[in-house]
Amino acid sequence: MNNWIPVVGDFEEKDNKLIFFGGDFISQTPSVSNNGISGINEEIGKYGLLLFEDKLSNGSISMKAELEEISKCDAIEILFNYQDEFNFMCAGVADMPAKYEIKSYRNQWNYYRLSGASMTKLPWREFNIKVVLNGSNVELYVNNIKVASAVIPEQINPTNVGVWVRSRSKVALSDIEIDYHKPKAFIISQFDDAYNFLYEQVIKPVCSKHMYDPVRADEVVSQSLVLDDIIVQIRGATAILADITPDNPNVFYELGYAHALQKPVILLCDKAKRERLPFDISGYRTIFYDNTIMGKSTIERQLDRHLTAINILNGQVY
Q1: Using CB atoms within 10 A of its CB, is residue 144 exposed (0-12), middle (13-18) or buried (19+)?
Q2: What are phi and psi for residue 252, nearest 5 degrees?
């Protein structure tokens, strides 16, 4: 059993299972009438939250969950991107109008994907739940079937993963497995000999040193449209490196999409070919490099520092 600690609620480890002791909780739901906003008392289950020692932003978390009974609003969800008990993301099953959820909590629930709303209730009391994290992509599997997926419009950080549960009865958690995937660095650049040398001799070795799997669009083998492949790679990347030396509209399109997803981006620019950045990206930190044998060690040091800064920001130092 992974080392764990409760944050909210009563948990106990017994017979290689984690037991959550639920109970009744009175929730006040806002309602609007002619007299203004008032509250309706609604009885639902108590909630609990626990964390494992494992930190994860790329990989998978799976577990088996058994509910003693199913009551209205019961939920069993895998937790990730945890900041504190009022700021986290989770995905799993719930006896709500939608039965499968990918959502975040920041003093209120925000939903990225809901499915299973046509069912009146959860069909079983036992579930195998798995969440796969890949860059900005989140996939939810229940009993080995993908029931929901979402692209999160922000960076998922490598924080402690755990469980968020709500129930009026006991819930048993077992077979907990946490698998790590190597984070990806997606390289955006023009394809010709000058940039190929920089990619092969500098970018790939430095990325590998920092435990990133570097990939460029021309290395992706697929039957899909090229743009679709690029979008998938950007979504799945933990860091983006973009060479914006030439005025290449494809590069700037991809860079804009990476910024929209709030990806950590490192800009690269050959100082002999461009002295000044376009206005819209002039505020971003940029490595101006000398694309010569003499300049190789300098850009290696600069790129090393930038990737170290991203790792520290994400809480992962190698």
Answers
A1: exposed
A2: -70, -30
